[in-house]
Amino acid sequence: MKRPVYTIFNVIYQIIICWLLVFLNAYYNDLIIPESLARSSGRIGIKILIALAESLLFILITYVINRAVLSDLEDKESQKSVANKTGKVQITITVFFIVSTILS
């Protein structure tokens, strides 16, 4: 493991993202859905789309922070490559988490 602080930061941030998504899904996302769709069969799909939009915002923030943290440590190509790989892993984890949480 070349960057233990970077890895620990990203694991902690992923836990925070998942916790925030559960919190937002439990308390606030239902307020965004219009009354006409609140009782329809598409409600779950709308909740998933809202959660995905929220998660993309959180992951974008993490990506920017990762690029800033890596800017002093690596050359530009390596920095971009590591940040992109980390972003892809976070997106994959978050999407599976959202779908499993909302559909359960």
Radius of gyration: 16 Å
Strand residue percentage? under 5%
Shape: elongated
Number of domains: 1
* Tally of individual helices: 5
Mean pLDDT: 86
What is the strand tally? 0
Q: What is the chains' assembly state?
A: single chain
What does this entry look like structurally?
85% of the residues lie in helices and 0% in strands. It is built from 5 helices and no strands. The protein has one domain (4-103). Helix 1 runs antiparallel to helix 4, helix 1 runs parallel beside helix 5 and helix 4 (43-70) runs antiparallel to helix 5 (76-103). Keywords: Membrane, Transmembrane, Transmembrane helix.
Short description:
The chain is mainly alpha-helical and 104 residues long. It has 5 helices and no strands.
What key phrases describe this protein's structure?
mainly alpha; 0% strand; 104 residues
List the helices and strands and how they pair.
Blueprint (H helix, E strand, L loop, with lengths): L3 H24 L1 H4 L2 H4 L4 H28 L5 H28 L1
Helix pairs in contact: 1-4, 1-5, 4-5
